Amino acid sequence: MRFAIAVAALLCATRVWAGDVSVSGAWARATAPGQSSGMVQFVISSQQEASLIGVSSPAAGAAELHSMTHDNGMMKMRSIKALSLPAGKPVDLAASGEHVMLLKLKHPLKEGDTVPLTLTIQFADKHKETVNVKAEIRPLTASSDMHDHDDHHDHH
């Protein structure tokens, strides 16, 4: 099974596999001058019950998982400690209202570049794995419904 996963990872440039976890379509919008934070979206799935419990990036002073909800007509964003990954069901952060926030950016996010992320996944048995992802930087006007193209990822 792991051999099949490795072969699939090599054949599919838009997907990263680490054990039972896959990440695809990672992207962030380019930042405007003076902007010190950025949002990253992706689709993540796990073959086993798990949780995304952490994220980091050398491009930012801090990275957090956030959830966006509508409350009395107002959009509210809050930090969350973990994102549940149901076994075998992809979680599309854009569709679910969750995203990764990169805070205290060390450099602007420029269209055409990539930003590295390290995701920490905890499984039901409490063991943890990390997944290294490179999110494509899209134009400032990009939206989450744009087609994925030429995503670049590290395969671990």
Q: Could you give a quick summary of the protein structure above?
A:
With 156 residues, the chain is mainly beta. It contains two helices and eleven strands, in the order αββββββββαβββ.
Q: What do you see in this structure?
A:
The chain is mostly beta strands and 156 residues long. It has one domain: PCu(A)C copper chaperone (Immunoglobulin-like), CATH 2.60.40. Helices cover 9% and strands 53% of the residues. The chain has two helices and eleven strands, in the order H-E-E-E-E-E-E-E-E-H-E-E-E. It has helices at residues 2-11, 93-96; strands at residues 15-18, 21-29, 38-46, 50-56, 60-71, 74-80, 83-85, 91-92, 98-105, 114-123, 128-138. Strands 1, 2, 3, 4, 5, 6, 7, 8, 9, 10 and 11 form an eleven-stranded mixed sheet that branches. 29% of the residues are buried.
Portion in helices = under 10%
Number of domains: 1
Biggest pleated sheet: 11 strands, mixed
Taken from the alpha-carbon principal axes, the silhouette is globular
Figure out the total of helices. 2
> What is CATH's topology name?
Immunoglobulin-like
The arrangement of helices and strands along the chain is: HEEEEEEEEHEEE
Task: Please state the second-level CATH architecture.
Answer: Sandwich
CATH homologous superfamily title: PCu(A)C copper chaperone
Mean of residue pLDDT values: 82
Question: Would you tell me the structural class of the helices and strands?
Answer: mainly beta
Low-confidence stretches: 3-14, 146-156
SS elements, strand count:
11
Q: What oligomeric state best describes the polypeptide chains here?
A: single chain
Q: Evaluate the radius of gyration.
A: 15 Å
**CATH class placement:** Mainly Beta
Proportion of residues in β-strands? over 45%
Span between termini = 15 Å
